[in-house]
Specification:
By secondary structure, the protein is mostly helical. It is about 60% helix and about 10% strand.
């Protein structure tokens, strides 16, 4: 199972790399008026920052699935850094304001996760998941994501995943497969 997950992760990384290489190649070969499209370039930078945030979020989710408080705390700290490194300059003023609000809240929850016991980490993960979902609604994602839902945790709680397979971060090993995919978020 671990090898399968690593293989899937490797395939996803190759797909993202290939897509980015194809986009760069297309931009470099388009000499129509010899001007570079800077809006595409800044979007590509933001895409990388979005993917960094998502990667840290998924590492955090996986640590909670594995009931690993220490790894969840480390992932929470790393997520704070990724959020702070996000460049919003390629977004509209309204999007920047919304992202600033989302990131302020997400940073607070990630900081709490980095210094708490697992039950408290899971409480903050619920709101953090909503923040990350709201971010993806603005920034998009390079990969297809699945919004999953557990009806049992705190009157119902959602999280994002890169797989349709349910791995519940709110209960971990106690109720690993509790939940369902409630929405598919297609890549751009």
């Amino acid at each position: 199972m671990k090898n399968l997950k690593m293989s899937i992760a490797a395939v996803l990384l190759l797909a993202v790399s290939f897509t980015n290489a194809q986009e760069k190649k297309k931009m470099n070969h388009d000499h129509g008026d010899m001007k570079m499209d800077h809006s595409k370039m800044s979007t590509m930078k933001s895409d990388a920052k979005t993917e960094a945030i998502l990667s840290d979020y998924f590492n955090l989710k996986n640590a909670l699935v594995a009931d690993d408080t220490k790894k969840a705390a480390q992932a929470g700290s790393k997520l704070v850094a990724s959020i702070k490194a996000f460049d919003m300059s390629s977004y509209t003023k309204e999007q920047q304001e919304e992202l600033a609000d989302i990131f302020e809240d997400a940073t607070e929850h990630a900081e709490h996760i980095s210094e708490s016991a697992i039950d408290h980490q899971r409480e903050h993960f619920k709101t953090l998941s909503k923040d990350i979902t709201d971010m993806v609604a603005i920034t998009g994602s390079e990969t297809t994501l699945y919004e999953q839902f557990c009806p049992m945790y705190d009157k119902g709680s959602a999280w994002l995943s890169t797989s349709k397979e349910i791995r519940n971060p709110y209960y971990g090993s106690r109720m690993l497969k509790c939940g369902k995919v409630q929405k598919t978020i297609q890549n751009r």
